[in-house]
Design a protein that fits this description.
81% helix, 103 residues, mainly alpha, 6 helices
């Protein structure tokens, strides 16, 4: 059983698990399936807006899909969430990709 199928099996047992959805989305990125990855990241973002790791990776997927304006909005929202959570590391990572995309 490949990693995607393994994660899907775990997700069937725990369908609300943001970590599993995030892991599955990352696997889809590896296979170039950006639409599927985006769906899982978007689900996470709506289910748990404080799951900060979602914003960086969702923004990266949107960039790969040639949607820079949407990526900027995601990065901005992620920076707000990271700041509210006091997560300076995530805030700085998001700010860096945000500024890089604006250049």
């Amino acid at each position: 059983m490949d990693r995607i199928e393994q994660i899907k099996a775990f997700l069937n047992e725990s369908p609300e698990d943001c970590f599993l959805k995030h892991a599955l989305a990352l696997e889809y990125i590896k296979t170039g399936e950006y639409v599927k990855a985006r769906q899982y990241f978007e689900t996470n973002r709506h289910q748990d807006p404080q799951y900060i790791a979602t914003y960086y990776h969702l923004g990266q997927v949107l960039e790969k899909m040639m949607l820079p304006k949407e990526a900027l909005v995601v990065y901005e929202t992620g920076m707000e969430q990271a700041k509210a959570a006091g997560d300076t590391h995530a805030f700085n990572e998001l700010r860096n990709v945000y500024e890089e995309l604006q250049d």
